[in-house]
């Protein structure tokens, strides 16, 4: 009894799975098993509220207070119901560059991800979101080096100006 208890404690556990052997055709030739393709996933846009300061989940794209102040000021100057579209495109020193522009809210696409900050919406297409998920957008009004800055955890390389990056997804 002691021997069987000891071997069960120290020996690796194996799980036996049924094995299906390849089928052979009437001519005796090997015929590979038929694999079924999984159904494609459907992707739906969701509105993601920004995580509270004490929240445990970080938003897909986070912005600093400086960004919100500056964007709200720019939006009020245009006197329109605008949202900010953030994305990426091929180009720039490092291979991909950030895109950012105001857009009328009615132009949002059905597959866009929407991140809300205190009534301000940031929209991003699903392809771009793969490259910038977890990014933090900051703004500085400094005379040298001021403007928007992108802190992207997915960037494996960035250029000197900080407006383009390389990423492996």
From TrEMBL:
GO cellular component, one term: chloroplast stroma
Annotated Core domain residues: 61-163
GO biological process per UniProt: iron-sulfur cluster assembly
Gene3D superfamilies, per database record: HesB-like domain
A molecular-function term among this protein's GO annotations: iron-sulfur cluster binding
PANTHER family: IRON-SULFUR ASSEMBLY PROTEIN ISCA, CHLOROPLASTIC (PTHR47265:SF1)
Family of the protein in this entry: Belongs to the HesB/IscA family. Ycf83 subfamily.
Protein's UniProt name: Core domain-containing protein
Species whose genome carries this gene: Glycine max (Soybean)
Lineage: Eukaryota, Viridiplantae, Streptophyta, Embryophyta, Tracheophyta
């Amino acid at each position: 009894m002691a021997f069987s208890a000891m071997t069960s404690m120290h020996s690796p556990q194996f799980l036996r799975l049924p094995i299906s052997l390849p089928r052979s055709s009437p001519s005796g030739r090997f015929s590979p098993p038929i694999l079924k393709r999984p159904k494609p996933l459907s992707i739906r846009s969701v509105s993601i509220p920004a995580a509270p300061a004490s929240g445990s989940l970080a938003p897909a794209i986070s912005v600093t207070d400086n960004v919100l102040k500056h964007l709200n000021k720019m939006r009020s100057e245009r006197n329109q119901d605008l949202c900010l579209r953030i994305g990426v495109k091929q180009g720039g020193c490092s291979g991909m560059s950030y895109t950012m522009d105001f857009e009328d809210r009615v132009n949002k696409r059905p597959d866009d991800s929407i991140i809300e900050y205190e009534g301000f919406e940031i929209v991003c297409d699903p392809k771009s979101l793969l490259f910038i998920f977890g990014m933090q957008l900051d703004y500085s009004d400094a005379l040298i080096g001021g403007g928007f800055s992108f802190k992207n955890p997915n960037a494996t390389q960035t250029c000197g100006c900080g407006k383009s990056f390389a990423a492996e997804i």
